[in-house]
């Protein structure tokens, strides 16, 4: 197996997000790989903007909910030592945006937290499950216990 060169961490700001982030950082350090992070917004309304679904992190939108999400992303990026150019916040479907960014940025490993759902919730799908089935690269699902 070749060493990973570019790892993408999919953030969801869950209670166990730090655990997932530290696992991604550990793998990146082990392989001396570039680490990027993405947070996909699918739960707040999109304001009328001129920049589409990719959210510029350096500009103030004037939209409080969006600015709070950006601040969280910036904080995680700083904590992990991820360059600002490798931090992404996008509106849309998490599975679709994570997979598309991974392809566009030539990511060879996606790290995502998994709640380990069973039954009906598994049939309805989760982000981790969807990414696992649609990504063209390796996916590491970090199991979130008691989440």
How confident overall, as mean pLDDT?
83
* Main pleated-sheet profile: 5 strands, parallel
| Strands ordered across the widest β-sheet | 3-2-1-4-5
Using the alpha-carbon principal axes, give the shape: globular
Strand tally is 5
Number of helices: 5
Helix-strand pattern: EHEHEHEHHE
Under CATH, the topology is which?
Answer: Rossmann fold
What fraction strand? Answer: 15-25%
In the CATH classification, which architecture applies? 3-Layer(aba) Sandwich
Low-confidence stretches: 118-124
Radius of gyration: 15 Å
Kindly describe this structure.
The chain starts with 5 loop residues before the first strand and ends with a strand. The protein has a single domain, classed as Rossmann fold (3-Layer(aba) Sandwich). It is globular and about 45 Å long. Helices cover 38% and strands 21% of the residues. With 147 residues, it is of the alpha/beta class. About 5% of the residues have low confidence.
Main attributes of the structure:
single chain; alpha/beta; 5 helices; globular
Nutshell version of this structure?
The chain is of the alpha/beta class and 147 residues long. It has helices spanning 17-31, 64-80, 94-104, 120-124, 127-134; strands at residues 6-11, 34-41, 87-91, 109-114, 138-143.
List the SSEs and their pairings.
Layout: E1 6-11, H1 17-31, E2 34-41, H2 64-80, E3 87-91, H3 94-104, E4 109-114, H4 120-124, H5 127-134, E5 138-143
Parallel strand pairs: 1-2, 1-4, 2-3, 4-5
């Amino acid at each position: 197996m070749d060493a990973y060169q570019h790892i993408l961490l999919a953030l969801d700001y869950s209670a166990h997000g730090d655990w997932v982030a530290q696992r991604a950082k550990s793998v990146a350090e082990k392989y001396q790989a570039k680490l990027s992070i993405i947070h996909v917004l699918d739960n707040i309304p999109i304001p009328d903007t001129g920049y589409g679904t990719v959210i510029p992190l350096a500009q103030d939108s004037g939209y409080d909910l969006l600015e709070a999400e950006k601040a969280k992303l910036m904080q995680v990026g700083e904590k992990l030592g991820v360059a600002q150019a490798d931090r992404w916040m996008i509106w849309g479907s998490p599975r679709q945006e994570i997979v598309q960014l991974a392809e566009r940025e030539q990511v060879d490993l996606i790290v995502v937290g998994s709640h380990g759902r069973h039954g009906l919730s598994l049939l309805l799908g989760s982000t981790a499950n969807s990414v696992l089935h649609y990504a063209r690269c390796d996916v590491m699902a970090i199991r979130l216990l008691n989440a």
